[in-house]
Amino acid sequence: MPAEAPKSGIIATLDPSIRPQDDLFGYVNHQWVKDTEIPSDRARYGTFDRLREQSEQAVRQIVEAASSGTAEDGTEERKVGDLYASFMDTEAIERLGSTPLDAPIERIRGTKSVSQLLGVAGELARTGVSGAVVFYVTADAKNPQEYVVYLEQAGIGLPDESYYREESYAEVRDAYVAHIARQAEGLGFEDPQGFAERVMEVETRIARQHWDVVATRDAIKTYNKHTLAELKERAPGYDWDVWLEGLQAPGGSFAQVVVHEPSFLEGLSTALQEIGLPLWQDWLVWRVVTSLAPYLNEQVVDENFDFFGKTLSGTPQLRERWKRGVGLVEDALGEAVGKIYVSQHFPPHAKERMLQLVDNLVEAYRRDFDDLPWMSPQTREKALDKLGKFRTKIGYPDKWRDYSALEVHRDDLVGNVARASAFEVDRELGKIGGPIDRDEWLMSPQTVNAYYHPMMNEIVFPAAILQPPFFDADADDAVNYGGIGAVIGHEIGHGFDDQGSRFAGDGSLTDWWTPQDRERFDALAQKLIEQFNQEEPADSPGTKVNGGLTVGENIGDLGGLTIGYKAYQIAQETAPAPELDGLTGDQRFFIGWAQVWCGKARPEEAKRLVAIDPHAPMNCRANVARNLREFQEVFGVAEGDGMYLAPDDQVRIF
């Protein structure tokens, strides 16, 4: 019997009416874009979303089986089932109506000073209602052997501070005020229009202090370490002691903090002193309403979706209740579900194949560093040291999270949400003073995504992303290297992008580059910024990409694709690729890259993402290939073609 032909791994329907020389994204994805309607409950839809649907369905089976109530009390399976059941019990939810808001609103209205209000804000932050300041805990960027609290700006309801000041968002601002008023009226508030205008007044003042999206991604500017005493001195109008008491923060947990945006805290401190207590009370009441809205009765849920789903993102229809219930369980008990998901959906040989891919990507970077014209020998030595210290996590954690302290009741949805938040607050702050947990994952195995953690110097690939078109353990190498290989290269590349390159191999925020190398690198990054400033999302023509916001991810894409291709060539040294489906291996590599970015978005969502998303639009990500001379050679791109870039205009960082 003849041997079975290898799978190409190409799942896209190529469009012969579009030449890859003119538009790689269109050649690979246009047929799908033309034939596919975005589901009515989504603002965008594509490769990631299709895999997320598969993962969501798998998790649905797990949580619905657990919700039968037959599991033993106190077990993780019982907690998963009871949490899901509490969300799905619409009769109980409708019977309660908006009454879960009564107690927190009464606490807010009963405060007699801004200081007291901050105490209540701390209590609410513990239960999932974010205030003007939010925190998280991770390794100290200047001392990655210790944990520290990081403080970030918050307190606004619109996606970004630019929504409060730019004329292009004037209609959205008006719609937001109208939404607050409608929600307030439905809840029986006095003077709902006045309430809405007062909330908007406070949020606008808060937004005025916010740093913009480009500044907030600067690793140097956002590292500002303070003692608690220094924090109090910097923002005296914010009663930190009262807020921390409300948060139930363990003693000493905020003894050292890293402030992301110091001027924001200073401006907030002044605003707390200048704006009257009644306005701050209205603002915090609204924070409670908008935070708990997804867990209340249908009227509140629908009004919440009308603005945040329809107006902001153009999504016509609210997601089915079971999908939202799965999302809640994922947020609160993700790794409890992940244990079962991995046992059912992640074969061991997939991990083995991935490890080989990672080894080849690391080797490709090692060879690449040897040839980089802009990197000096001194910097190259340290870059190779950092590369040698990379840690790779694939599939699922070696050590699962312990949920024994989390209490879940089948008949108390809002209480479950509050307890899950408090559990997470205690878990995070409980890290302070302890050793760094290098086994911790920041994503569950069923998450369709990947990440690089600069302070841990690690790349992480959850099980759910290791599926076609990213990865097919049984397919030909070409598309695997163009898909998950380039994604691996992207994540490794984050260790050497404009911000990740500021962290050394031990995870510390250290300037390990020579000044000349940094200058040359920054010049290349600026060239990429200017290139992407001219790009537009296919779904919102006329809206320009923010090259400064997306530069880190664009460097990741460009580096990932470049090194992914180099790693593919390494793999070919021992097993040359056959021609499949009339395409060479090199052509299939670039097709594999482009089909990863298959997708489309509603115009409103495409415009919203340009304002806040550090990732470029999907068509721009696929077509970053035009910077590679290898792509031009493989497809015979010539001057005058849409994908042509003159050699001097191409950006090659790695």
Question: What characteristics describe this protein?
Answer:
52% helix, Collagenase (Catalytic Domain), three-stranded mixed β-sheet, alpha/beta, 24 helices, Neutral endopeptidase, domain 2, 654 residues
Number of H- or I-type helical stretches = 24
Q: Mind telling me the C-alpha Rg?
A: 25 Å
Please report which band the strand proportion falls in: under 5%, 5-15%, 15-25%, 25-35%, 35-45% or over 45%: 5-15%
The CA-CA distance between the termini, in Å, is 45 Å
Number of E strands: 9
- Which outline best applies? globular
Percent range of helical residues: 40-55%
Q: What would CATH call the architecture of the largest domain? A: 3-Layer(aba) Sandwich
Widest sheet: strand ordering: 2-3-5-4
**Average predicted confidence as pLDDT:** 94
Can you summarize the main beta sheet?
4 strands, mixed
Question: Can you tell me the number of structural domains?
Answer: 2
The parts where pLDDT drops under 50 for at least 5 residues are 1-5
The assigned structural class equals alpha/beta
CATH class of the largest domain: Alpha Beta
CATH superfamily of the largest domain: Collagenase (Catalytic Domain)
